[in-house]
Amino acid sequence: MVSAKPVLTGFQPADLETLLAEWGEPKFRARQILEWVYRKRCRDFEEMTNLGRPLRERLASHFDLRALALARHQGSADTTRKLLFRLRDGRFVESVVIPANPALYGGRADRRTICVSSQVGCAYDCKFCASGLAGFTRNLTPDEIVGQVLEAESLDAERIDNIVFMGMGEPLANLRNLLSAIQILNAEWGVGIGARHMTISTSGLAPQIERLAEQPLQVRLAISLHGATDEVRDRIMPVNRKYPLARLFDALRHYQEIKKQKVTFEYILIEDVNDALDQASILANRARSLNAKVNLIPYNNVEGLPWKRPSEERQEQFLKLLRAAGVQATLRREKGHDIDAACGQLRLKEERGGLIAEAV
Question: Does pLDDT of 163 surpass 60?
């Protein structure tokens, strides 16, 4: 049976203070409770020993402490880890913990990045992606987004340093819940990860990019571009038909005017789709127009989809052309290719294997 109780990791201090006041408890209890949740990572209300037993029992009757549970994990030879989480309604989402590549996002060699999901499935139907193959189910709640980070840290007892909202789903299609989760992840009373160490990736939802620009948090923005022309993006990314490149770039210029930040273009290289060198030239011009960085990502093959990654020689040629044109560009080397690390692959296998029916 699905628990109907809310999860504490979705609450802001003010909300908790209001509830505690209704219970006749002082405001400072909210900070004590949040310290147990985020600093001490307690798993049971009985561990909250500086709270009286009646309050502990009342909290246990009204709240859960975990929004999800680890269902499965896979480890890669390069130390990338794929985590499959079961939500309380029996659905599944994925996260990927990635060893640092100092060339990406300004990271240090000893830092760990987590790629976090924002939705169960995806409605945007990018043709190369596994996330949407089982369709869209629902948005994740703030506690489910935050919970992925907490559980990943608990698994290895190591801190996550960077968060990339680039897992299952379109983050900006779940903007309100995403922003609430980011506030919790960023807050001193919460997980305490700096906003500049968080990156939101979008397939190109132009109006939401403009809304994001108005938010005070200094999170970073990455665009899942994957095509330098409307013709290519129309073929593999249906979102481009609603927000073509001209509209998208207008939104990005608005974003940069307000945020004064560099934007990153994520570009998955797919053989005979977007890896032609004329695409590299057009991409270079687009990147220079915004002084954007480009991260090239060789395609991770997905069972049931026809796409393939280009040869290493073609990958290097594409990278060389971008750099020769004055673009700051990196080529992401092999990460998790041996553990189905492409978004949605592990969840798809589990759901097709009937684990949802078993869980529900």
Answer: yes
| CATH number of this structure's domain 8-62, picked from the four choices 3.90.1010.10, 1.10.1200.120, 3.40.640.10, 1.10.150.530 | 1.10.150.530
Question: For 166-277, where are the E strands, in sequence order?
Answer: 198-202, 220-224, 264-269
Range with top average pLDDT, 71-85, 255-269, 299-313: 255-269
8 A C-beta contact, residue 170 and residue 118: yes
CATH 3.20.20.70 fits 68-359, yes or no: yes
Task: Quote the mean pLDDT of the chain.
Answer: 89
Helix 175-186 vs helix 142-156: crossing angle, to nearest 10:
40
The answer to which of 32-36, 97-101, 190-194, 290-294 has the lowest mean pLDDT is 97-101
Cα 301 to Cα 130, 271, 296, 353, distances in angstroms: 10, 11, 15, 20
Q: Cα–Cα distance between 93 and 140 in angstroms, integer? A: 9
Closest CA to 75 of 301, 341, 302, 297: 341
Q: Which amino acid, residue 323?
A: R
Strands 81-87 and 68-75: antiparallel
Torsion of CA 331, 332, 334, 335, to 10 degrees: 180
Q: Where are the domains of the chain?
A: 8-62, 68-359
* Catalytic choice (94, 170, 350, 351): 94
What pLDDT is attached to residue 76?
61
* Cα 304 to Cα 95, 178, 235, 237, distances in angstroms: 21, 30, 18, 18
- Which of the residues 122, 126, 129, 343 is marked catalytic? 343
**For residue 74, what pLDDT band results from cuts at 50, 70 and 90?**
confident
Asked if 343 is an active-site residue, the reply is yes
Whether 47 is a known active-site residue: answer: no
